[in-house]
Amino acid sequence: MSSSTSSAPTRALKIGIIGFGPFAQFLVQTMSKQGHSIRATSRSDCSEQCAHLGVTFIRDMDEFLQSDNEVILLCTSIVSLSEVIKSMPLHYLKHPTLFAEVLSVKEYPRHVLLKALPPEIDLLCTHPMFGPESGKDGWKGLTFMYEKVRIRNEDICSRFLHIFASEGCKMLEMTCEEHDKLAARSQFLTHTIGRVLAEMQIEPTPIDTKGFQQLVHVKETTAKHSFDLFSGLFVHNRFARQQLKNLEIAFANIKQKLLLQERMNDKMDLSLSKY
């Protein structure tokens, strides 16, 4: 692993974005501020959002891929990735082009893209470990994970990574496999706990402790994300199922310890009642 990336020139990039949801719009604000030229495409009409952010919206995928993009950034949902890739007329791609993606799982998009993309297309798998809420006051100190899966044009790759490094991100290079192992224990587990708390309908009370306030915050934060994201973290991360099993085992063990303690207390109360 490496915690930094090489210094990179600041020359502006021509970036095409596929999928223009809230996360893409969040990234674009900083990319545009840095002077990069942005165009976007999406299955839904995002022309209004693009106009507001100074982004060129191209509805037709053929036209989008024939545009002069140095980088194509995939900001689709996890569950729609395969369908989106299958629908793309990749023969229209101009070379050299760097494909990058920002999905919350990494082995799955790596596999899908390596299978679908022409061998001459570069591939960079990334995961900004922050979003519109945690990154609203800037990206300094926030982690940006990446793996250079297939890179021939180091210049374009370095310039893309510099977008995040120049904002003060902690640049963390690791394999997609290692990312998914860690994410299953952190991100997926956090979302699972948040969903459980939401199912329990926990709400603030007049006597909240700091710990309970943090639990409410976890519930509210995870509830802002779609169930598609949550299910994607489970279905497309091969390490998530074991973490779910570990959570079930841990809950059963704690329950067993509590019931055992309850029985011991009952026996003690019964013994004392004889005196």
From TrEMBL:
GO-annotated molecular function: oxidoreductase activity
Pfam families with a match to the protein in the record: PDH_N (PF02153), TYRAAT1_C (PF26213)
Alphabetical keyword list: Oxidoreductase
Family matches, as InterPro entries: NAD(P)-bd_dom_sf, PDH_N, Prephen_DH, TYRAAT1/2, TYRAAT2_C
Domain spans labelled Prephenate/arogenate dehydrogenase: 13-275
Protein name: Prephenate/arogenate dehydrogenase domain-containing protein
